[in-house]
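Progress against Task 2.4 (sequence-to-structure conversion) is shown through the following example record, which the project officer requested during the mid-term review.
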Amino acid sequence: MRKDLNSPAGSDLLGEMVKMAAELLMDAEVDVVSNAGDGERTEAQVNSWNGHRDRRRDTRAGTITLAIPKLKKGSY
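Structure tokens generated for the chain above:
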């Protein structure tokens, strides 16, 4: 298993896992901050999503492109 993660294909897998976890955490944080999920409307909503922007980040798992949430008011 460990040697598989050190192969080129394994590093892609690890990078994809890091990307997925980071994007899920960012989206969950924006849901809490705005009091509504992406595309959801609530009476307690204080902000709304305005899509995502791509940003490249260098990690131990390689360079990944994250979809950073955008808000209509302020920034993430």
